Amino acid sequence: MARPTRPQVTIIDVAIAAGVSKSTASRVLAGRGSASSSAHQKVSAAAKKLGYTPNALAKAMKSGSSNTIGVVIPDLANPFFSTVMRGLSDAARTAGFEVIITNTDNDVDIEVRALALLDEKRVDGLVIAPVFQTGSEAIDTLRERGTPIVFFDRSGPSRNSTPVVSLDHLNASRLATDHLLDLGHERIAIVTEAGNDLESLREYRGDPGLLRPSSQRLVGYLAALAARGITADRELVIHAEYDRADAARQVRDRLENTRDITALYGTDSVLTSGAFLALLDLGVKYPDDLSFLGFDDQEWSTMVRPSVTVVSQPRYRLGATAATCLIERIRHPEAELDDIRLPAKLTIRDSTAQLVR
Description:
Elements: H1 11-18, H2 22-30, H3 37-50, H4 56-63, E1 68-73, H5 79-94, E2 98-103, H6 108-120, E3 125-128, H7 137-144, E4 149-152, E5 164-167, H8 169-182, E6 188-192, H9 198-201, H10 213-227, E7 237-239, H11 244-257, E8 263-266, H12 269-282, E9 291-295, H13 300-303, E10 309-312, H14 315-331, E11 340-342, E12 345-347
Parallel strand pairs: 1-2, 1-3, 3-4, 4-5, 5-11, 6-7, 6-8, 8-9, 9-10
Antiparallel strand pairs: 10-12
Helix pairs in contact: 1-2, 1-3, 2-3, 5-14, 8-10, 11-12
């Protein structure tokens, strides 16, 4: 049985109940113009009794602004994105904007529907962590209509002049790899979604911003090795899907079949936790048997013993920066905005140690 819908209470309904004209009711409810104290009292009482709420969509269409921004992200359950959203929401509200969040699960069709929904809501602008693809008609259409857009975490298709707010993925990965190299490790295994792209990324010299984050991090690993005169061994590049179970499975297989690995590096939160499960399953003692380094400062990484060395992302600051950048674009649409890449931090704990030969 369908749920009965309650009729929308209009300004006319409030005016009739208060015994005033529509224009008087409109001025009182909008908080603009003049009206007597008696009219204020009558209109306010009538609005409360009838349960009047302003039509946000109609207001946005009339004023040209809804004071809302839309956010399209791939995985709100991921602790990285949940902390990012806190920073984004706090910064947006401070500037007078509310936030509508949608989750795509990295699915192109869901992304298209999410963008259509946010467009219908007349959001003033969009922060998008786009599904990586060669082109997006939905994004291009919004951009051509003048919708302010900021890409987050990764560049989008047909990027043009759209600014990107992200971690400096390449140098974050160099930071991790350099730490292991400084400890004397050369046989460093890396767990990455981009493992199948190793050959095409060995000599990559283009704009790293055109690559997906996993590819940028693999390039950073390769660059750190090359700077020390080391050529990456294909056996040490472990490809895994963005899935904890698959990462655990792939790492178990590689460690069982490649005995001279002295360090293991996971390139994102999901792959890091999967790699850690593999170490537990195999009974590997870190850092005695091998050094272990992860990505993202997840809560569990400080709770296990030995605690885990990680690359920390400034998650809250990334979200706040994305909101600030979009609001600047909304308020000054003609301004040229540069990409913003924030640096990572290496948090050294007990899971990495000097190689003893």
